[in-house]
Write a structure and sequence with these properties.
Blueprint (H helix, E strand, L loop, with lengths): L10 H6 L9 H9 L14 H12 L6 H4 L30 H18 L9 H15 L7 H12 L1
Length: about 160
């Protein structure tokens, strides 16, 4: 029997654990056809932003194998099915970033530690200048005593560019 997905934030969990779901995978097609450099997705609370972004991350992320969780979905009947798991993807949800600025900064630093860990293989072939920047940025995101967003900004830029 299918379960009702109350509070589920992960598309993978939704599919693998047999929850009811409405197939919104054609949102990926719309996103690709729009071709925008930046897309801002705003919706009211509890409207499915996190689960939809999780779906997009599962679809694009090169570090994942998502064939099974997208099997039988509408996106797999389009030419965009060939885009499955082809791109480096950074997915950071703010859904659990709550309370005050200090707590939110710590949360984000932890998220970046996970992303840096996941993409560790791209940092293997750096020149001495990149290695120095990497070391400084890595120390910044490990230091949870510093409550500024500067380390997070540097970490995001370095991860996107490298």
């Amino acid at each position: 029997m299918k379960k009702i997905p109350t509070g589920i934030k992960s598309f993978r969990k939704l599919r693998e654990e047999n929850y009811y779901f409405v197939d919104k995978t054609l949102m990926i097609k719309d996103f690709l056809e729009r071709g925008s450099e930046v897309t801002l997705i705003t919706r009211p609370r509890r409207f499915g932003k996190t689960i939809n972004m999780s779906m997009m991350s599962e679809f694009f992320d090169i570090t994942k194998d998502s064939k099974e969780i997208f099997k039988g979905t509408k996106i797999m009947d389009t030419p965009y099915a060939s885009e499955l798991n082809q791109y480096p993807t950074i997915f950071i949800s703010f859904a659990d970033a709550k309370e005050n600025k200090e707590t939110i900064v710590k949360f984000l630093k932890n998220q970046f530690q996970l992303e840096y860990s996941r993409y560790n293989y791209i940092f293997k072939d750096m020149d001495e200048y990149e290695e120095n920047d990497y070391r400084i940025i890595n120390e910044g995101i490990k230091n949870n005593q510093n409550g500024t967003l500067q380390d997070i900004e540097k970490a995001l830029i370095f991860l996107m560019i490298d």
